[in-house]
C-alpha cells in the first residue's frame, strides 16, 4: 500500500496459507515493479521511524512471529507495506475508471441486472437511477430491495421483473430456459417457480405480476431486515471523506465535492458547465 507495487496470487500464496499478513519486501527508494516486471511510479519513502510502523501492525502487547518478521524486514531496508487485495473495500473511494466506464456504457445499455445485493451502499446503489429509466431493470435477489432515490425524478424506479430466490437457482433456471428446456411454473411456491397471488407488504409496492419465486426466496414480512443506506462519500477535490453537505454532479457518476471544495472545483469541473445538487 505504500509503494503501489503489485503482486500475483502465487507471490503471496505461502503467506496466506501460513496465515501471515503478506508484506511487501521491495527495497525502499526503488521503483516499484509489478509481478509482470513492469516498472511503476516511484513513491517517496515512509517518513516515520521503523519502530512506529511496526507498532501499527501489532494487535496486542505480546510479541508475535509476525512482529519479528516485520522488524527484520524494516531493518533490511525493505518497504514493509501491507499487500492489499486489488478490490475496493467498504468506505474506500471507487477508482475514477468506474465512473468513466459507466458513463460510456450507459448510452449502450440494453438492460440492467441487479443481483445479490441489498442496495444499501452508496455510490453503487445509485447506478439504477443513473442509467436511463427506459431500459428494463431486473432484480435477481433473495428478497425485494428498495431502490435509493436521491433526485426529484418522477420515475419510481421499480423493477420491471423480480426473480426472487438463491441467485444460483435463478441463474440455472434462466440458463435452462435459454437452452429451450421447460421450466415448471406453478401458482404456489411448492413448484420449481412460484407466482405471487396476493398483495402483501413485503412486495414494497412492486406489482405482484412482475415477481417470480424460486427456491430460497424471502417473502415473509418478519424476515425482512430494516436496511439503512450507508452513505460514505469522498470529495473529488480534497479526497477526504465528506462530513456534512455533499455536492453531487448531476451529469457524472460519483463526482462529489465537499462544501469547502465546491466553490472552486465546481468551476473547474467540465469547465463549469455541469450542474450540482446537494444530497445531504
TrEMBL record:
Pfam families: SIR2, ZZ. Keywords: Metal-binding, NAD, Transferase, Zinc, Zinc-finger. It comes from the Eukaryota. Its cofactor is Zn(2+). The lineage of its organism: Eukaryota, Sar, Stramenopiles, Ochrophyta, Bacillariophyta. This is Deacetylase sirtuin-type domain-containing protein. Residues 1-181 form the Deacetylase sirtuin-type domain. Residues 16-63 are annotated as: Disordered. Coiled coil: none annotated. Residues 22-33 have a biased composition (Basic residues). GO terms for molecular function: transferase activity; zinc ion binding.
Amino acid at each position: 500500500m505504500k509503494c503501489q507495487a503489485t503482486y500475483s496470487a502465487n507471490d503471496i500464496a505461502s503467506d496466506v496459507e501460513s496465515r501471515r499478513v503478506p508484506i511487501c519486501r521491495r527495497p525502499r527508494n526503488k521503483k516499484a515493479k509489478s509481478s509482470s516486471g513492469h516498472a511503476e511510479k516511484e513513491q517517496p519513502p515512509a517518513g516515520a521511524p521503523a519502530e512506529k510502523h511496526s507498532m501499527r501492525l501489532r494487535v496486542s502487547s505480546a510479541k508475535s512471529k509476525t512482529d519479528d518478521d516485520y522488524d527484520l524486514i524494516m531493518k533490511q531496508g525493505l518497504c514493509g507495506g501491507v499487500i492489499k487485495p486489488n478490490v475496493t473495500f467498504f468506505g474506500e473511494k471507487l477508482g475514477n475508471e468506474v465512473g468513466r466506464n459507466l458513463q460510456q456504457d450507459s448510452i449502450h445499455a440494453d438492460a440492467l441486472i441487479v443481483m445479490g445485493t441489498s442496495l444499501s451502499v452508496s455510490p453503487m446503489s445509485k447506478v439504477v437511477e443513473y442509467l436511463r429509466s427506459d431500459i428494463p431493470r431486473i432484480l435477481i435477489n433473495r428478497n425485494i430491495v428498495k431502490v435509493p432515490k436521491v433526485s426529484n425524478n418522477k420515475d419510481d424506479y421499480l423493477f420491471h421483473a423480480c426473480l426472487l430466490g438463491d441467485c444460483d437457482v435463478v441463474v440455472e433456471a434462466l440458463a435452462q430456459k435459454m437452452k429451450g428446456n421447460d421450466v415448471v411454473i406453478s401458482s404456489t411456491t411448492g413448484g420449481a417457480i412460484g407466482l405471487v397471488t396476493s398483495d402483501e407488504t413485503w412486495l414494497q409496492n412492486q406489482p405482484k405480476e412482475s415477481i417470480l419465486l424460486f427456491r430460497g426466496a424471502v417473502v415473509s414480512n418478519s424476515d425482512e431486515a430494516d436496511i439503512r443506506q450507508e452513505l460514505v462519500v469522498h470529495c473529488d477535490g480534497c479526497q477526504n471523506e465528506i462530513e456534512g453537505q455533499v455536492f453531487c454532479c448531476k451529469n457524472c457518476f460519483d463526482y462529489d465535492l465537499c462544501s469547502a471544495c465546491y466553490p472552486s472545483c465546481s468551476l473547474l469541473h467540465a469547465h463549469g458547465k455541469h450542474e450540482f445538487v446537494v444530497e445531504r
